[in-house]
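Morning run. Coffee first, then this:
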Amino acid sequence: MKKKKASELLFNALNHTVFVGITLIVLVPLLLVVLSSFKTPEQIAQGYHLSLPAPFSLDNYKEVFKNGNVLTGFKNSMLLVLGTITINVILSSMVAYSLSRFEFKLKKVYFFLFSFSMLIPSFIAEITRFGIIGRLGIYDTLLAPMVIYISTDILQIYVYKQFIDQIPYSLDESARIDGCSYFKIYWKVIFPLILPATATLIILKSVDVLNDMFTPYLYMPSAANATLTTMLMNYVGRSGSWAKLSAAIVIVMLPTVIMYLIFKKKILSGIVAGAVKE
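And here it is:
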């Protein structure tokens, strides 16, 4: 018994040590950036890096908003997020509804191809994708990354299908008896029941789009089409100091952090609900 208690104590101590270590690895750099964003370059050079700014200064934020193209980046990021998630939710849920409810030729082949494509690293198809975007005539427009975000997210189809598979087929049959078309069943019966999955996927997709720097930089290089992430990358060379760069990083980070804090419960409940089968 004593041996068991000692091993449990040792295990708990090890768990807490690892947890504290990982937390520090994540939080200390963030804290360093936030504190530096309120300091002057002289305070950063002279003081301890994790010391509180004395006094707090908002000059770095004013400078970033004045010369960093922040408002353009914010507008373009929001347009990308809204356009992407609207089309993505409709298309993904309709495809999942078809795969879940209907029998048709090559259904298993289609589902295999959807699943298989998730295993292929995206960079393998980058040259081909770049050529397609160029031929479509949408290079250096908001449509370029939007089309890529919409067409390459196969995971959403898979998650929606898991949810729809759990909805009793008797609901569809009742709606058919009442005279509903297949589209009305999807829109009036199925879609309201998969709203928890929709909320989760919207949040996760929004965070993905907001944090992506590679796609907007490659497909929308002009300053007028800058997003928050590409604005930050361009600002690195022009900032001239770690303090201003830290302020720019905090501004880019804020939308994602706020979104996560507001919808944290919905993200977790949506993921757990999709994992349970009865």
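The CA atoms of residues 223 and 231 lie 8 Å apart. Good start to the day.
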